[in-house]
Structures are given as C-alpha cells and as structure tokens.
C-alpha cells in the first residue's frame, strides 16, 4: 500500500509540474506584448518542496491514502502545508505575517486575512495564476 501511495502522489506532482509548464508558456504567450512574463526558472522550480521530506509523505498520505478521519494524518498535513506556504511565495498565504500562528483563525474567519497580508511581488502573483490554471487541469 505504501508503494502505491508513493507512486500515486509522485505521479500527481509530476503531472502538476507538466501542467505548470504548459500553463506558464500559455500565459507568457498571452502576455508577450507586455513587460510581464513568468520566468522559466520559476516554472521549473515550482513546488519542488513537495518532493522534500517535510512535505512528501504528509501530502501523499493526505491525498492518496485512506479517506477516513485521521487526526494524526490531518495534523501532519497541516504542518506540511505551513512548510509549503513558508517556502513558496506563489501562495498568497506566504505574505501574511505570522501565518502559522493565525492560520486557524483565518480559516474560521476569512475576513481577518485583510489585516495581515503584505504586498505580493508581480513574479509571485503570475506564478500563483499559473499554479491555479495548472491545478484546474491536473
């Protein structure tokens, strides 16, 4: 079962990476007459932390493991999510001061987010758009 979960999640990450590149190239084509472009470096490095020790297994078990209520698994996923957000600036949560401390409060009261958000750079914003387009396809 562990091997199946490993390969299911690895396939999901690689498929998402493929759609990131496809979406990024498409968005760059749409924006070619502007000064905005998603850098190839950002496209290639996108979400590499998902393959690291801090995120891989918690994500794999959460998305590809048994679909039952499991507090330990959910807590491990939450820690992995906080790690992902802290190390990937294409998530708007990355720009919330002290996100790890206030994540539960924001989840229960989304209107609080406006009090903590810092400005997001254009390159991170473009990567976030690419990520959302790719996620809708994978």
Question: Based on CA inertia axes, which overall geometry fits?
Answer: flat
SSE-based structural type:
mainly alpha
Mean pLDDT across residues: 89
- Biggest sheet statistics: none
Number of helices: 6
Tell me the β content: under 5%
Q: What is Rg? A: 16 Å
How many β-strand runs?
0
Q: Helicity range of the residues?
A: 55-70%
Low-confidence stretches: none
How many domain units?
Answer: 1
| Terminal CA distance | 23 Å
Question: Could you give the order of the helices and strands?
Answer: HHHHHH
Which helices and strands, and how do they pair?
Elements: H1 2-30, H2 40-45, H3 56-64, H4 71-87, H5 99-108, H6 122-137
Task: Provide the descriptors you would attach to this structure in a database record.
138 residues; mainly alpha; 63% helix; flat; DUF5662
Give a short overview.
Helices cover 63% and strands 0% of the residues. The chain contains six helices and no strands.
């Amino acid at each position: 079962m562990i091997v199946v979960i490993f390969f299911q999640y690895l396939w999901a990450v690689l498929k998402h990476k493929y759609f990131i590149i496809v979406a990024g190239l498409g968005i760059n084509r749409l924006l070619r007459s502007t000064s905005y472009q998603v850098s190839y470096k950002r496209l290639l490095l996108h979400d590499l932390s998902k393959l690291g020790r801090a995120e891989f297994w918690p994500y794999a078990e959460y998305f590809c493991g048994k679909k039952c209520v499991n507090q330990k698994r959910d807590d491990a996923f939450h820690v992995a999510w906080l790690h992902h957000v802290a190390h990937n600036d294409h998530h708007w949560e990355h720009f919330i001061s002290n996100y790890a401390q206030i994540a539960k409060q924001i989840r229960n009261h989304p209107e609080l987010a406006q009090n903590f958000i810092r400005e997001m750079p254009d390159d991170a914003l473009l990567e976030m758009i690419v990520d959302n387009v790719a996620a809708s396809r994978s």
